[in-house]
Design brief:
Layout lengths: L2 H13 L8 H15 L3 E7 L10 H4 L2 E11 L2 E6 L2 E6 L5 E6 L8 E7 L3 E6 L6 E5 L22 H8 L6 H5 L10 H11 L12 H20 L40 E5 L2 E5 L6
Antiparallel strand pairs: 1-2, 1-6, 2-3, 3-4, 4-8, 5-7, 6-7, 9-10
Helix pairs in contact: 2-7, 4-7, 6-7
The chain binds zinc ion.
Length: about 290
Amino acid sequence: MDNAVFHKRQDIRHAIQGKQVPELPEIETSRRGIEPYLVGYTILHTVVRNPRLRWPVADEIMSLRDQKVVSVQRRAKYLLIEVHTGWLIIHLGMSGSLRILEKDSIVQKHDHIDVMISSGKILRYRDPRRFGAWLWSHDLQKTCVLTHLGHEPLEDAFNGQYLFEKSRAKRIQIKPWLMDAKVVVGIGNIYASESLFVAGIMPDRPSHSLTATETEKLSGAIKAVLSDAIALGGTTLRDFLQTDGKPGYFAQQLHVYGRAGSPCRRCGGLIESLKHGQRSTFFCSRCQH
Ligand SMILES: [Zn+2]
């Protein structure tokens, strides 16, 4: 598939009533959850009950046999499972979840893929809406879904200076700009709203109006908000399950997202919302300028 098709599908996904989808902390939580059960073990084979996901499950994954897992990594919202012959690239889409289960666990509706592991456990993929993806790559550098991605927000290269330089010529509003994966990856609607609140910045200002002090604050806020969410096991989404099967919903930790009409936790004023395209943005006009 080429990038144009990929982005078209992304647009379709976003158009589905702006439903909440797993964001970077949920993916990182999944990665940390499954990593100890995979690295150093062998994938014996896979069981694909329904290959019709966002794109058909890669043939190489369907026919995978006896491959030792080298690493489990994440790039943007993709999970990368490295085996000796290549990489399984997994995207959870809107409603995908991964769990580690015993191999004789009962298969339920929407359990589309099992990865059988030499330990006797399985990595099970459930995805009711089937917008997720299981792709294969021999070479990550040539994998179209991974090219042209911006910095990882938790890495040192993503900082105030980088954001300042990137924002100079941009008239687009700050919030949609932050959600552009060419700027920084993995920041969706929830964490863009939350980070801008923490940084005290109004989401509808033009990006180039940010001062160097503000971009410094903003990069720090993004790192803090994402790290907090990861520490909590991922803020989530109705269909997302943590690897142990419990819903990872921590909405009480959110400052503004989904709280229009409720009092600001900082100043007591009312949280407001406005629409950016399909998305709602939440903010406090007293705490953000
Ligand atoms: Zn406030």
